[in-house]
Design a protein that fits this description.
Keywords: ATP-binding, Nucleotide-binding, Nucleotidyltransferase, Transferase. With about 375 residues, this protein is of the alpha/beta class. It has 15 helices and 13 strands. The strands form two sheets. An eight-stranded mixed sheet has the order 3-2-1-4-5-6-7-8, sandwiched between helices. Helix 7 (about 130-145) links the parallel strand 4 and strand 5. It is globular.
Length: about 375
């Protein structure tokens, strides 16, 4: 571990003065590599605070582009960045904040094929993703490689934060043993989110990361901390390792759990189709099927798949006759809304499928 330079001592002076942190804590941050999954609502505060704190290498994984509707909470981006890759927009902002750190961008989905390579070089992984498939894939890759995972999630006015480390205790699979079915839990585009809540949860995630790297305090191992923003209260709930749960040793043994986040892995990585939500990947996309983008107009303004027809989800469900007699495939941002819409329409007799991974999986192909 290299000693701090005079410039680093000046930049991080307020941190170095902290009792229990000191130069040793700063040197640990400067020497560290953190992989952050997602440059959105949670990734924005996490990346900003870690870059400002002097984490020496930040790797960002996100295939998405900046949309106008992101800006109320994703303050790492700006109006001039609408339509740009989020990883590029974030990289440029972080470079302005701290030009002395290394920023590596990966404009891709986290997939079964790349997860171990991406996670393997990190000291800590921070999961700021917004879908269950990616969360479980990140969790499992970290368990296999023995890398601590800082996890957070938000919905509505509430948020949760935890530190998962299979080497010493519980993981996401102990907190939530059953992976929710695609579309069963609304995403932020459907349920909404307050921008300031993202800041609260993201800042807590950044602090847990700093604690792990610097060896200070008591990280949130074997517990989940739950924040209710409307009452400004935190509650910490213990989470124990299930002794009967087999350790995750191979990602390919859990492919069905990664359907939404596995993206373009071919048929083997597709979630198990059901009569309610049959799925296809972009690589498998069949001929003779009409492609319909069910995202909101604000989302589509940043780009859509060429040749697709735009029909917002609410409008489609209210007027399904628009697809009568047609074989169609629906896509949204990550596959959550399209799976829900697909189930509703098939129950009414329409020939509909859902594109796994949605627009994010499409962007990963570019």
């Amino acid at each position: 571990m290299a000693p701090l330079t005079s410039a680093q001592r000046q930049r991080y002076a307020r941190q170095i003065r902290l009792d229990g942190f000191g130069a040793a804590g700063q040197e640990a941050l400067t020497d560290a590599h953190v992989l952050v999954i997602g440059a959105g609502g949670l990734g924005a505060p996490v990346l900003t605070y870690l870059a400002a704190a002097g984490v020496g290498r930040l790797s960002i994984v996100d295939p998405d582009v900046v949309e106008l509707s992101n800006l109320h909470r994703q303050f790492i981006h700006s109006e001039t960045g609408v339509g740009r890759r989020k990883v590029d927009s974030a990289r440029d902002r972080l470079a302005e904040l701290n030009s002395s750190i290394e920023i590596v961008t990966h404009p891709v989905l986290l997939t079964v094929d790349n997860a171990l390579d991406l996670v393997g070089g990190a000291d800590v992984v921070v999961d700021g993703s917004d879908n269950f498939a990616t969360r479980y894939l990140a969790n499992d890759a970290c368990e296999i490689l023995g890398v601590p995972l800082v996890w957070g999630t938000i919905l509505g006015f509430d948020g949760q934060v935890a530190v998962f480390d299979a080497r010493r205790g519980a993981t996401l699979r102990d907190l939530y043993p059953v992976v929710p079915a695609p579309g069963s839990v609304p995403d932020c585009a459907t349920a909404g989110v307050i921008g300031a809540l993202c800041g609260s949860i993201g800042a807590a995630m950044a602090m847990e990361t700093i604690k792990l790297l610097a060896g200070i305090g008591t990280p949130l191992h074997d517990a989940v901390s739950i924040y209710d923003s409307l009452t400004a209260t935190w509650e910490t709930v213990p989470v124990g390792r299930n002794p009967r749960r087999p350790a995750v040793a191979d990602l390919h043994s859990h492919l069905g759990d990664y359907g939404e986040g596995a993206g373009e892995q071919g048929t083997a990585a597709c979630p198990t189709s059901t009569d309610e939500t049959p799925t296809v990947t972009w690589a498998q996309f069949p001929g003779g099927v009409d492609l319909i983008d069910i995202r909101e107009p604000a989302e589509v303004s940043a780009g859509m798949v060429p040749g697709a027809e735009h029909l917002p989800m609410d409008e489609l469900l209210e007027h399904p006759e628009a697809i009568a007699g047609r074989s169609v495939a629906l896509y949204c941002r990550s596959g959550v809304r399209s799976a829900r819409a697909c189930a509703a329409l098939r129950a009414r007799g329409f020939d509909v499928s859902s594109v796994s991974g949605g627009y994010l999986a499409y962007l990963s192909r570019l």
